[in-house]
Amino acid sequence: MRDHRRIDPRDRLIVALDLPTVAEAEEMVRRIGPAATFYKVGLQLLFAGGIDLVRRLTGEGKQVFIDAKFLDIPETVRKAVESVARLDATFLTLHADPRTCRAAIEGRGASSLKLLFVTVLTSVDPADLAREGYARDLGDLVLDRVQMVLDTGGDGVVASGAEAAAIRAKAGDRLLIVTPGIRPAGASVQDQKRVATPAGAIQAGADYLVVGRPVTAAADPRQAAEAIVDEIRTAVEKQ
Ligand code: C5P
Asked: 224 CA distance to ligand 1 centroid (A)?
């Protein structure tokens, strides 16, 4: 269930630690200081000592989003989620497949780990879907999978700013929406194609924003994070 109204705007920014080594990630966390409380650790770092980093961050009171996008047979998913649940992370990503979703819910047991589902990867376009044998329209497939997450009891979805409003309209307050592809007005878009500003994503219904390079590649990461949090706060106040 979505409880965004009680979340401090500062806790709604998730900084993506897309860095090659734990040492660089730790240095980044140190530079950002109190400006961010929530970090995303993805596959690059998980396989380079990132699990210990997750433990250290949660031990320091930070929240951690483990972006591992699990998809496997139900028994493997269940056991893997049991292991993740022991790390005290806040979010874990999985692919939006019904058996994966049910197995993950079993695996997290009574832990507070929240399960977020990727509906359709943003790198997939309609031609890719057709080649993979899907006859569905991409937007419809996203909403079908959102329905599946609702039906099976997942906590939320990862969605771009462009999809967030339609998902919010369908799911109401029953799902968390976590939105990457965020670029403050005037920032470089880099390889992202469909970007939203922090305020635009909040207005579209996002609960949490995932921001990587606009913070980690900034000359002053702390100041960049503070500016995004200010923008989130102003957007929330207007809601
Ligand atoms: O540097 P940037 O802000 O583009 O980083 C965004 C982060 O969100 C990256 O870790 C990227 O893998 C992740 N992400 C994304 N688009 C998605 C899902 C995840 O950019 N649809």
From this structure: 17
